[in-house]
Amino acid sequence: MKAGSLTFFSGKMGAGKTTRSRQIAQERNAVLLSEDEWLEAVYPGCITSLDDYIHYSAQLRPQIKKLVQSILVAGTDVVMDFPANTITQRNWFRSIFSEVKAQHELIYIDLPDSVCLEQIGQRRIEQPARARTDTDAMFVQVTKYFVAPTSDEGFNVVS
């Protein structure tokens, strides 16, 4: 059986990764996994800072990796709404698909900071529970670590 294909995203906070992941999962009839949903379900109310996110996200990743690989091996496509915004994060995705010899697609959403901040502001209105962490200050803090994907990393990048 042919392995499924993994789709994942790179883009600054507020770039629209979640919206695109939902659209693509629906279009491709793929399994959608959202880091935000998993973190909230497994560690409710625990993430109030970037350090919290880093800690709890690292706790979640080993099991998510096993789950995604199992789905891919079964021949089903997976769309992951998990950030691929640093080289380390992208290397984690590489380990997921390469270990099971699955195809992949890295969708890079490149938007100006002003658009991302506007969309974050709209998200705070639409999802008041996120107002505590989805702030301009958090955007600035997180963006310091953002590294756009480059061709020398060897991913199948789509804009």
UniProtKB/TrEMBL annotation:
Q: Which UniProt keywords apply?
A: Cell cycle, Cell division
Q: Does the keyword Cell cycle apply?
A: yes
Name of one Pfam family that matches: AAA_33
State the superkingdom. Answer: Bacteria
InterPro entries in alphabetical order:
P-loop_NTPase (IPR027417)
- List the GO biological process terms: cell division
Designated name of the protein: Cell division protein ZipA
